[in-house]
Design goal:
The complex is a heterodimer of chains A (253) and B (256). Chain A is globular and about 50 Å long. Chain A is an alpha/beta fold. Chain A has one domain: 3-Layer(aba) Sandwich (Rossmann fold), CATH 3.40.50. In chain A, helix 2 crosses helix 3, helix 3 packs antiparallel against helix 4 and helix 4 runs parallel beside helix 5. Chain A has eight helices and eleven strands. Chain B is mainly α and 256 residues long. In chain B, 78% of the residues lie in helices and 0% in strands. In chain B, helix 7 packs across helix 8. Chain B starts with a helix and ends with a helix. Classes of the chains: A alpha/beta (253), B mainly alpha (256). The interface between A and B is medium-sized, with 29 and 29 residues.
Chain lengths: 253, 256
């Protein structure tokens, strides 16, 4: 498995790491084939937009990457290590933010991050410093209430904090802005942009303006396969006049 | 080991902050007080009822109560406490599936077997705490009012009933690893307990049924010795260990 790769970019050869590679991924639920041989590579230090209609298989792909679902076929490698269903060893490289993150409502944000750090084996001093740093980053530094009283936006921000806690090489966000109001969406996108310095981000969505705003690369998922993949500039150049929306409609038709 | 301890710490915090610890303590303390209290009040209640019973042609003679009456109440009431315990604590796994809270813990690299073991240890501990509290209160009051020494093999009898509770909890763990909702877990656990009860009625299988561990009256009165419970206790211990091991295997295959 190639972890270190080269490609032509801007007239020269660029060396980059593949954080995530997916080959021929297949998954069915009952008789319904959701993924039909999906291939995807995510280069290091990118914000990668994973675009598809509702029910296209974005969450299924992400859960397979996390070893939570058993694929019917294909292979997934994270940082060069093979993902095995049920064994979460590769998850030490990954931070995950589900579409609707659910926490233990009786804990405070700081207690929850401490719990996450302890189950992933972080040292006490590092955990305390990192928890405080991340709660400040997501605007929950002064929050002493229990999670029970949190709004959806606050839960989403805490979700990002827990996902970044272990300094993951890959941050997977499943439609993090879908259910938020414009203010909440902007806050989450700003946090993700700030997190770009620390990690690679795989970001699933069907909100195209979010992709155009923060992503460096994107892939369109349609009919259980990647229909198109490239940098944002490459994808934009395909429809210079109409933009992303017409490209999305064409690809996912 | 640290991740498992952290998960156990979370379980303890959950029991305390969701009010389950208070319910557990109150429930078992209430049963603990009720057993000797009912025994103590029995003569008085019989006296009050004597007039109405006399009208029905029944004569109430002098009612004698002692430590055996109190322990009789204990072993009569503890099944109700176990049922309440099952209803309160059996959603330990299914609540996490339903809410999705386990998902984030697993994506942090927490091994699934540690989830099963941590929850199992906590359920066993909660049962031990509740049962121990109920037993201690009944023991204390019974010793105060009467003489505990007239009950034969009291500690052994109590241990057998505790073991039956442990066996029931291991069934909850097993079905929680297989099923999605709490009602199904309770129904399946109840079904197996019923099966054990039926096996206890059949003479050939009686000695091997874990349900025999509930039937300790003949042990207390000295009609039967401790040896009569050996096979049933062994079956309970071995099957409980197998149920927990199977739960780990099921959990590893479970798609979250």
């Amino acid at each position: 498995m190639h972890y270190l790769c080269r490609r032509w970019k801007g007239g020269g050869m660029e060396t980059y790491m593949e954080i995530l590679t997916i080959e021929d991924l297949k998954k069915s639920f009952g008789g319904k084939e959701v993924l039909r041989g999906l291939d995807l590579t995510v280069p290091e230090h990118s914000i990668f937009g994973f675009i598809g209609r509702n029910g296209a298989g974005k969450t299924t792909t992400m859960k397979a990457i996390l070893g939570l679902l058993k694929p019917d076929g294909g292979q997934i490698h994270v940082c060069g290590e093979k993902v095995r269903f049920g064994q979460t060893h590769t998850n030490r490289h990954i931070g995950y933010l589900p579409d609707v993150p659910e926490f233990y409502a009786y804990m405070t944000p700081l207690e929850y991050l401490r719990f996450c750090g302890e189950i992933s084996g972080m040292g006490k001093a590092d955990l305390t410093a990192r928890s405080n740093e991340l709660l400040e980053l997501v605007g929950l530094g002064q929050e002493r209430r229990r999670i029970k009283g949190f709004s959806r936006g606050m839960k989403q921000r805490l979700g990002i904090a827990q996902a970044l806690l272990n300094r993951p090489k890959l941050l997977i966000c499943d439609e993090p802005t879908s259910a938020l109001d414009p203010v909440g969406r902007k806050e989450i996108l700003d946090i993700l942009l700030a997190a770009k310095e620390q990690t690679t981000i795989l970001f699933s969505t069907h909100i195209l303006s979010d992709v155009e705003r923060i992503c460096t690369e994107a892939a369109f998922l349609n009919d259980g396969k990647i229909a198109m993949q490239g940098t944002i500039e490459e994808l934009r150049s395909m429809r210079p006049s109409d933009g992303f929306e017409s490209l999305f409609l064409e690809v996912t038709r | 080991m640290m991740p498992m301890l952290a998960f156990m710490k979370k379980e303890i915090l959950e029991t305390a902050r969701t009010g389950k610890l208070v319910i557990l303590v109150l429930l078992f303390a209430l049963f603990g007080v009720m057993n000797p209290a009912i025994a103590k009040l029995t003569p008085w209640m019989m006296e009050i009822l004597s007039d109405s019973l006399a009208e029905s042609g029944l004569t109430v003679a002098n009612v004698q109560v002692d430590a055996m009456t109190s322990w009789g109440q204990f072993f009569k009431n503890i099944p109700i406490a176990l049922i309440a315990f099952v209803l309160i604590f059996s959603d330990s796994f299914t609540r996490e599936y339903r809410s999705g809270t386990l998902l984030l813990a697993l994506t942090k690299g927490l091994s699934r077997y540690k989830v099963v073991l941590a929850k199992t240890v906590l359920l066993f501990s909660q049962w031990t705490l509740g049962y121990g509290l109920c037993f201690s209160i009944t023991y204390g009051y019974t010793a105060y009012f009467w003489d505990n020494s007239i009950a034969n093999n009291l500690l052994f009898a109590a241990a057998m009933w505790w073991l039956f509770g442990v066996w029931v909890i291991s069934l909850i763990v097993l079905f929680s690893s297989l099923l999605q909702n709490n009602t199904s877990v309770i129904l399946c656990t109840g079904g197996i307990v019923l099966l054990a009860y039926v096996l206890r009625v059949i003479p050939k299988s009686k000695a091997y049924s874990p349900a025999l561990l509930m039937n300790v009256n003949s042990l207390l009165s000295g009609v039967e010795g401790t040896k009569a419970y050996g096979e049933a206790a062994l079956v309970a211990v071995v099957s409980a260990a197998i149920f927990v091991a199977l739960s780990v295997l099921n959990m590893n295959k479970r798609q979250v």
